[in-house]
Amino acid sequence: MDADLVRRQIRIKETFATVTAGERYLEPAERAIAAARAELEAYIAVEPRFLTSLEPIAIDMAAPQVARRMAAAAALAGVGPMAAVAGTIAQVTVEALVAAGCRHVVVDNGGDVVLRIDRPLTIGIFTGGARVRDIALRLEPRPGIFSVCTSSGTVGHSLSFGRADAATVVAESGCLADATATALCNRVGERNEACVARAIRETLADGIDGLLVVAGDQLGMGGSLPPLVRAVVQPRPIRMG
Fold first, then answer.
1. Which pTM value belongs to this model?
2. Most Cβ neighbours (<10 Å): which of 119, 134, 208, 227?
3. Residue 29's closest CA among 111, 123, 116?
4. What percentage of the chain's residues is helix, strand, coil (to nearest 5)?
């Protein structure tokens, strides 16, 4: 068990991540985030379509790994590759720390959370002005890395075509969870039970553990989610990852 956990906010340009881990892992976390961003920025400079496309695009195997992982996740979810940016940066950061020996790490990149935990943890889901609020997922330790990513059509500045206050995806891969959360939110065009149920049904796929949607007074769940519990969830700025 990693003792003396420390929480640090790391800001590099548009990325504003909160990392919780043993203190000796915080500098490696910042280096991992910076390296992932540098790879992505260099690729976008020569392939600007990667930044602007709202649909999956094919990229060649010479692209940096971070771009390839984003593109692959976006293709599975049916969205543009930048829909996976926050989750992918968080994913590669956690992978780097785990490879260095870290047993407990949480990277929250603007509401897209990737983690490897050795003790129970509760993650709140911010639902803005929805009537369904103050809910959280109670997570138990797992052997490996997993992710809880949330997209919203009403909270934050990320582009969304849906009306969900929160569309949350639990999956092993932060890349896939982030892209799928965008796709799930996009499918919630109406705040009613039928639309929420349809969005969940159409989004649940291989590689996804569970889905949760809050839209106004509607709460929908699908797949295998961790236990849902009550918790006071404080409003906080949602920043692009």
1. 0.92
2. 208
3. 116
4. 35, 25, 40
